[in-house]
Amino acid sequence: MAVHKGSEGVVKVGSNTIAEVLDWSLNESADTIETTNLAATAKTYVAGKPGGSGSVSCHWDETDTSGQGALTAGATVVLNVYPESTGSGATFASFSALVTSIDRASGGGEGIVSATFNFTASGAVTWSTV
């Protein structure tokens, strides 16, 4: 059984690594289409089109112009999510992502300012190996 530490993960905009990533999430889903007919005694469904959404949270770094700076609200970028590193044989997801919103928050007092970039996949999420 393969086990991976979160600290091994990397998220990239195209080939540019996003700086200061704290965590990320990627939710893959599929629409459900009801197929129940009038004579049925229970509802039935088939899978519809797949999709995805998620977020990348970081310590905010305004100098990261090709990573965090590329993630502006309304932008469409290619995201590459590497759960287990970028080394040879590592698995990663690649997809076109529409940045839907950005949340920036103060850590309060001596805390670090954070930024969370929320996205929706536009097209298929493809899993490959490096």
Would you mind describing this structure in some detail?
With 130 residues, the chain is mainly beta. The chain has a single domain (6-26, 48-129), classed as Pnp Oxidase, Chain A (Roll). Helix content is 0%, strand content 53%. It has no helices and eight strands. The chain has strands spanning 10-13, 16-17, 21-34, 45-59, 76-82, 91-105, 114-121, 126-129. Strands 1, 2, 3, 4, 5, 6, 7 and 8 form an eight-stranded antiparallel sheet that branches. Strand 5 (76-82) and strand 6 (91-105) form a beta hairpin. It starts with 9 loop residues before the first strand and ends with a strand. The model has no long low-confidence stretch (mean pLDDT 93).
Q: How are the elements arranged and paired?
A:
Layout: E1 10-13, E2 16-17, E3 21-34, E4 45-59, E5 76-82, E6 91-105, E7 114-121, E8 126-129
Antiparallel strand pairs: 1-2, 1-5, 3-4, 4-7, 5-6, 6-7, 6-8
